[in-house]
Amino acid sequence: MKKFNILIVGGGSTWTPGLLKSLCVRKDSFPIGKLTMVDVNEERQAVIGEFAKILFREEYSELEFEYTTDKQAAYAQKLDFVFVQMRTGGYGMREQDEKIPLQHGVIGQETCGPGGFAYGLRSIKDMAQLVTDVREHNPKAWILNYTNPAAIVADALQQLFPEDKRILNICDQPENLLRSYGRLLERDPRSFDPVYFGLNHFGWFTHLYDESGNDLLPQLRDMILDGGFRPVDYEQRDQSWLDTYAMVEQTVRDFPDYLPNTYLQYYLYPDKVLKKLDPSHTRANEVMEGREKRVFEACHEVVDKGTTVGASVVHNDAHGEFILIVAESIAYNKGDNFIVIIKNEGIISNLPDDAMVEVAASLTANGPRPYAVGEIPVFYKGLIEGQYAYERLTVEAYIENSYQKALQALTLNRTVVSAQKAREVLDALIEANGDFWPELK
């Protein structure tokens, strides 16, 4: 069986230990010859890298592994897959993304609204450079991208690299939802055949078929309305995530046709969500004080003890496993079904063909083969078209260095609406982001 060469970009992420553990768990079904991790933050990279050495010594001794901060050397290797999970600006800029909008009375969130807009303008530059650098040495490597905000990044990469058919943008939130449905229904989530449509962080499940073709969605909807909804790994989640999942019950009660992506709370209930947010202590602070601290403390403990035995940081979570089973399906032409981000081209027949939609697709060695959705109802079409316009204008603002299009984008966003607030937030974000952003004129 062929062994694959993998590069993880953003190796210092708190999500990396789970991904590394997943590599060990799946080493028989997806064997790796060499794994390299690269990150521009040497300190974070070293902590995760030394942890990885111990993990692989115990569970994957045949694997060749290295970590580095030298991007060009990492990209110059012979690669089969590049897994990307960058965060341009780190948690410091994420904190600004969330707090600046809140100072102006609008939602501050990592990937939605002005926060997602700011993050998107930072991510595009680094992602475009990564694709250029990888392709110089590895024209056929698959680039599987987790980098957020995935909707904006996917649209930008499609416009900047329209002929590159080996870039696949994915998000683990639909996978998290499927696993949460599985726990609630006491079923294996990989047995589900989902029908899903929308944009990233802006979509709905319309059907959830079992192995016999029965639609489980009506049953699941009734269970959520009767007993609420929690993530599959709720015992490990911070309170803000529990609150986010809890909002699904309200959304289903108001719009019972389909089951929503959890991020829709920010767009459908912005006033309600805004009241819950603390401008002085946002989700970024919660992550830095919670998951960030726990993961790095646990990795340090592993390094100090020289073993992963008993380490809570090592677990096989959805984020880590999802990107691997996607890669497996491509590598072995398995044609397994996943929800991925892909150019519309008639999949949703009453949305623009050039929109980067999130739908179910069979993943083969030649890429995704999406399943047709057809026409969607007016309400959902209207919501998506507004979000699509916001995302497209954001990308055009980056490419054209256009202040006007940036202002139009934020004005269209359902978390902002007011043109006056859009301008106030935009000007504040320009000042905060400095050289991370293009110069908007």
Automatic annotation (TrEMBL):
Entries under Pfam families matching the protein: Glyco_hydro_4 (PF02056), Glyco_hydro_4C (PF11975)
Superkingdom to which the source organism belongs: Bacteria
UniProt key word Manganese: yes
Residue span(s) of domain Glycosyl hydrolase family 4 C-terminal: 196-416
Keywords from the named record: Glycosidase, Hydrolase, Manganese, Metal-binding, NAD
Named cofactor requirement(s): NAD(+)
InterPro entries: GlycHydrolase_4_CS, Glyco_hydro_4, Glyco_hydro_4_C, Lactate_DH/Glyco_Ohase_4_C, NAD(P)-bd_dom_sf
Co-factor binding details: Binds 1 NAD(+) per subunit.
Family that this chain belongs to: Belongs to the glycosyl hydrolase 4 family.
Protein name: 6-phospho-alpha-glucosidase
